[in-house]
Amino acid sequence: MFFFGTNPILELLIFAAFGLSIWAQFKVKGNFRKWSQVAASSGITGAQVARHLLNQNGLYDVDVEPVRGTLSDHYDPVNRAVRLSEDVYYGNSIASIAIASHEVGHAIQHKEAYSMLVLRHKFFPILNFTSGIAPILLIAGFLFRAANLIGLGIIFFATVVIFHLITLPVEFNASSRARNLIVAEGFIRNEEEKGIGKVLNAAALTYVAAALIAALELLRYILIFVGMNSDD
């Protein structure tokens, strides 16, 4: 959502952040495509990695299921399932191992009640409400120059920014757990760690870009709001 007339440096930063986001998406897809073609020396599939790591951590009740789509992998905390895209589930590549272990990292976070994951789950109901209404309030406020609507919209949009910021440590922690787990279990060799890092780091960059965009947009709205009040 763009409203011009604010600081040109800020507008440039937002434009750069969007560029970073697009580049990050290309990196994710590119690294996944590249390392999906490199078979792991262990020959183990993503599904086998996930099942083994879950069992090793006492998570026998968490299912490992294939799901359609590319890069549609996720952990479902409600139904207690690690869902892996078919390429990851059936594949025995470096990318498959990296992604499968990352999702298991989220399952372990859930088991241990990792503080940032718990906080993110608590934020979901709030986010579902505020993320939908914030744009409406902001647009209406700017159109009608209604400072109270803009102020409320900014408060609601701030929860979106907070959610993005909470997500960062959750994702980085899951990736860190993934690396430690697969190295400890001997699923990869030392020379294969580079590929694991490439896949996980590219994915993490998308979350960084999303958080940066949200934070800069919030700053833009605040500056516009302050400027409008100053003019009045």
Automatic annotation (TrEMBL):
<keyword id="KW-0472">Membrane</keyword>
<keyword id="KW-0812">Transmembrane</keyword>
<keyword id="KW-1133">Transmembrane helix</keyword>
<protein>
    <submittedName>
        <fullName>Peptidase</fullName>
    </submittedName>
</protein>
<feature type="transmembrane region" description="Helical">
    <location>
        <begin position="150"/>
        <end position="170"/>
    </location>
</feature>
<dbReference type="InterPro" id="IPR007395">
    <property type="entry name" value="Zn_peptidase_2"/>
</dbReference>
<feature type="transmembrane region" description="Helical">
    <location>
        <begin position="6"/>
        <end position="26"/>
    </location>
</feature>
<dbReference type="Pfam" id="PF04298">
    <property type="entry name" value="Zn_peptidase_2"/>
</dbReference>
<feature type="transmembrane region" description="Helical">
    <location>
        <begin position="123"/>
        <end position="144"/>
    </location>
</feature>
<feature type="transmembrane region" description="Helical">
    <location>
        <begin position="199"/>
        <end position="223"/>
    </location>
</feature>
